[in-house]
Specification:
It is a single chain. This protein has one domain. Helices cover about 20% and strands about 35% of the residues. It contains 2 helices and 5 strands. A hairpin with a 4-residue loop joins strand 2 and strand 3.
Length: about 80
């Protein structure tokens, strides 16, 4: 899966969240906000070309302190 941007991180804690974003996109359920088109959902396929997405992931903070949610936006090309 190709993502734009390629890396997602919490700027406050300098924690890499890319793997969480990828897992959320691979998951069939929430928390993905923009997953393909209605036509794709009805006909069992994905939209051709890049598709925008928005996922909510959890930053663990540093040393277990400062845990919070973070919304990541980007574009996915399969």
């Amino acid at each position: 899966m190709n993502l734009e941007p390629e890396r997602y991180e919490c700027a406050e804690h300098d924690v890499d969240l890319t793997e969480q974003v990828q897992v959320a996109l691979d998951d069939d359920g929430p928390p993905v906000a923009y997953r393909g088109s209605l036509r794709g959902a009805l006909f069992g396929g994905r939209r051709a070309g890049p598709s925008p997405f928005q996922v909510v992931v959890r930053c663990p903070g540093v040393g277990g302190a400062g845990e919070h949610t973070l919304t990541c936006n980007g574009t996915r090309a399969s």
